[in-house]
Amino acid sequence: MPLVILSYILANIAYFFVLPLKTINSTNTVAVMFGSKVFGPIGSLILALIVSLSCFGALNATTFTSGRLVYVAGKEGYLPSVFGKIGIGSMTEPHATTLRTRNWASKRMARMFGDEETGLFFTPVYAMVLNALLTALYILVGEFGTLVTFYGVAGYTFYFMTVLGLIILRVREPNLERPYRTPPSWSPDRNLPLSTISLIVTV
Q1: CA 149/CA 182 separation, integer angstroms
Q2: What is the pLDDT of residues 22-69, one digit of tens each?
Q3: What are the protein's UniProt keywords (predicted)?
Q4: Per-residue model confidence (pLDDT) at position 38
Q5: Helices 125-141 and 41-76 sit at what angle, rounded to 10 degrees?
Q6: Which pLDDT score is estimated for 119?
Q7: In angstroms, rounded to a whole number, what is the distance separating the alpha carbons of residues 86 and 100?
Q8: In angstroms, rounded to a whole number, what is the distance separating the alpha carbons of residues 81 and 164?
Q9: Contact 198/159 with Cβ under 8 angstroms?
Q10: What pLDDT, on the 0 to 100 scale, is given for residue 177?
């Protein structure tokens, strides 16, 4: 993780050294402009592919985490209980009599991708459907720049609140059992200022 952060910082520093500030402010494809300036057309294509892979990695991580967050919120009662379910069509539910008379292919799929308690798939499907609908709504009503700003403000606000919550728990409940401890490099005392700065810069 520190290597990834350092790579992003050095990349941004390189952008400012190579490209004029006016160019950086007027384009949404800074990496492509940088690649074209330094390495020519081939470089811009390679950097575009690298940025795309980075975006897919971030999308993959966000899909996993956001789905589980909505699932826990539904399970704890903060959202409707349907979002706190894992899988589709539990065999133990009263209304699942039609699932017991499935054909051979359906039964084999159930054995491969689920069980009698969760039904098909070991995934918070309903929570992920909610996230997909919200994402589609944001895309329909917003522009690219607006979405980036909105995500930045919302994301860094939650990061700030999460780190602040850890510090408050340490003060209020110092003897609370903590099964997971953050590494020294990710101490909340260090991350709180970083989250604050990121939030201010985004706003």
Answers
A1: 29
A2: 888 887 778 888 888 888 888 888 888 888 888 888 888 888 888 888
A3: Membrane, Transmembrane, Transmembrane helix
A4: 83
A5: 130
A6: 53
A7: 19
A8: 28
A9: yes
A10: 80
Residue 89 falls in which region: left (phi positive, over 0), alpha (psi -120 to 50) or beta: left
The Cα–Cα gap between 96 and 111 comes to 16
CB 39 within 8 Å of CB 54: no
Percent of the chain residues topping a pLDDT of 70: 73
Residue type, 74: G
CA 121 to chain centre: 21
Runs of H (alpha helix) within 77-143:
97-100, 104-113, 125-141
Cβ distance 113 to 80 under 8 Å? no
What is this structure's pTM? Answer: 0.60
The residues pairing with 115 across neighbouring beta strands, listed in sequence order, are 119
Q: Please give the pLDDT value at position 97.
A: 44
* Structure-token pair, residue 148: 């980036």
Instruction: Name the burial class of residue 95, with classes exposed (0-12), middle (13-18) and buried (19+) by CB atoms within 10 angstroms of its CB.
Output: exposed
Task: Report residue 35 as tokens.
Answer: 């690649």
